[in-house]
Specification:
Blueprint: H1 2-14, H2 40-50, H3 54-58, H4 65-98, H5 105-108, H6 112-150, E1 159-167, E2 174-182
Antiparallel strand pairs: 1-2
Amino acid sequence: MQYHFILLFLFLGSTSISAQKKPLIIAADSLKSETIDPLRPAKAAFYSAIFPGLGQIYNKKYWKLPLVYGAIGTSAYFYIDSQKNYNIYRDEYKNRLEGNPSSSASLARFDDSRLIAAQKQFQRNRDLSALFIVGFYVLNIIDANIDAALSQFNVNENLAFKPAINRNTITSENDFGVGLNYSF
C-alpha cells in the first residue's frame, strides 16, 4: 500500500499544473508579399500591339528597344529597297515590250529573260521582307507579354537549387545529391 501512495505521489507530483498562462511570443512576419497584377501581361501585349516597343517600355526593359526597332527597321529597309529595284526592272521590261529604247545603259545589256528573273528575285525578296516585318512585330508582342508575366515571379535568395553533399554516418562515405531548399 505504501508503494501505491509513493507511485501516486510521484505521478501527480511530476506533472506541472500552472494557473498562469505563459505569454505567447509571435515573431514578426519577415515575408512581405508583393501584389500581383494579373492583367500586366495583357497590358504589355496590348501596348506593343498598338506601337512596337511600347510594351518593352511598360516593362521597363529599355535595352530591348534598339533590338525591336533595328529588326523591324532593317526589314522595312529591305522591303522598300526590293520594291524600288523590282519597279526599275519591271519598268525596263515594259519599255522594251512597247519598243522604247532603254533609259539606262546598265539595264540595256540585260536580255528579256534576265530582266524577268531579276523581277522575280526582287519580288521574292520584297515578300520575304514583308514576312519578316510581320514576324518581328508579332515577336515584339510575344516578348512583351512573356516578360511581363515572368517579372511577377518570386525570385529571391530564399529560393535555391543547390547541390548537396551528405555524410553517410553508417558507411562514412559522402553521398551526392541535389536538393531544392526554401528557407525562411
